[in-house]
Predict the structure.
Amino acid sequence: MANKSIIRKAGFGGGAVLILAVVLCLGGAGWGAVWSAPAQSAAQTGARTLPRAADGKPDLQGIWQAESGVGLDLEGRLTKNGAAGRSVVEGGTIPYRPEALAKRQENLAARQTADPMASCFMPGVPRIMYLDYPFQIFQTAEHVAITFEWSQVFRLIYLKGKPGPSGFDFWMGHSMGRWDGDTFVVDVTAQNDRTWFDAAGNHHSDSGHMVERYTLVDADTIRYEVTVEDPKTFTRSWKISIPLHRRKDMTRLLEFQCQAEAEEASGLFERDPRTWYTPKGAPAPGGGGR
Amino acid sequence: MKRAFRRALIVTMLVVPFAALLAPAQQRGRGGAGRGGAARGGRGASEPVRRMPDGKPDLTGMYLASSSGANYGLEQNPRDFLTPGTGGVVVDPPDRRLPYQEWARAERIERELPERGYDDPTAHCFVAGVPRSMYTPSPYQILQPPGYVVMLFERMSWRIIPLDNRPHLPDNVRLWQGDSVGHWEGDTLVVETTNFNGKAWLNERGDIVSHAQHVVEEFIPVDANTITYRATVTDPVVYTRPWTIQMPLNRRTVQDGDTRRDDQLLEVACHEDNGDLQHLKEVKDAARAAKQEKEK
């Protein structure tokens, strides 16, 4: 009875289950040099017309989604329907160390099963930001929260406060945010090495440091840029730039529960006709208790 | 008798190997090294309810329910062999029992069989639903961005509660966490939730809700660190009348120099490291095979 499942559902079955940490906040000093001048001037041009929150900061709140297909391959080689792709990586290619490039090729070849998302595992940052699913941004005085339709994953970005204990890592990393003028900048650290950047096997180590920049270019578009620094995997830092579009057709997020969908489809999680919803007009499922 | 013994035996086989892991893991996560040794909870003298600039209560913070074991049963239950006893959180009906219809009470008892452990959606790391999300033994962050109350659960799920009196989703849109709309009544946050898919369980004991579930929750601020939580569930498919549970939600803070601040959420990678579901499946498959054998 209850006990049989305590361990399971608690998700506390051993140290591996709780992957935790709160990690040193890196001030982000020195990253300014990475950002291209056009990004900043564009932000300034639209500054007067941008929606603003009560505190005067650009209002990023709302439901957003990246252009479809970006998450397939940042370098644009893999595409939907074999159409010509476009790299979102500045300079076109990711500057891998040789052994890391070999690992990428291995991942690429085995991607149907090796992709962590094929197992419905949390995608990590930045991949979660450019899936083909919408997400919603919320702003408060001390936090920016991002909730994702994909499997109800969320990010809680701290604007204030001290980092907690170190020594653990997270699937979704630890995020500290700050405003750099009208751009929201997030330092993401403490990610594990089990997530990929895309479905093409692009990967990182557990020493990755991602710096995200969210710049509202007009009321319905965010320029989302990420600079990746991970000396174990790459010969230098590299950068991606992806537009996020406001989902004006959505007033609320729904749910895509990846693992539940998979288990219902395979029969591993079975329908209970007495309690589950049946659409009106559909034949009532048989075998119920009512 | 025989069945009970066998159940206990299976439960022992299942639990003992993991029980040893469970305690240290929780300790690590909840105030041990994982939290930097910081004491959690830390409610001192009662401080007044915090306020937003518009005068509404400020519920922002990290909370954990003091639930009397509601995740193992909403009614009062004696401690079973290796099962935590539960204090009971039902405040209505007056007899503090859930007003089950006959079929549903039978199903609830059935869900206590070892082979039904597999059927609890949270054993699969699916989201807990409402109101269960509020009393799983794992903390959550409440935020109050403009126009919303947002709840982020450490076991990786969320609730988004708009405060704009919008209509609920069309009837054919069905969700694990349902569709919530909230409003303030004085200092009380009232949240109405519908559009459930009927897949969630209310706890590990198997208390039942269906797609017809309609939940009205009240978050009543008591002081800066305490919310009284009440949830009234109406579900005509399962129950003969509405019922209400109540429990305190306690804010979790840590000492930070001279001040206390909210503790930080961690991340429970439940599905990513779910190695034990297979055991529950084996128990279920074995029970099913035995039943088929008997029916032959």
About this structure: The first helix of chain B runs from residue 2 to 29. Chain B is about 20% helix and 25% strand.
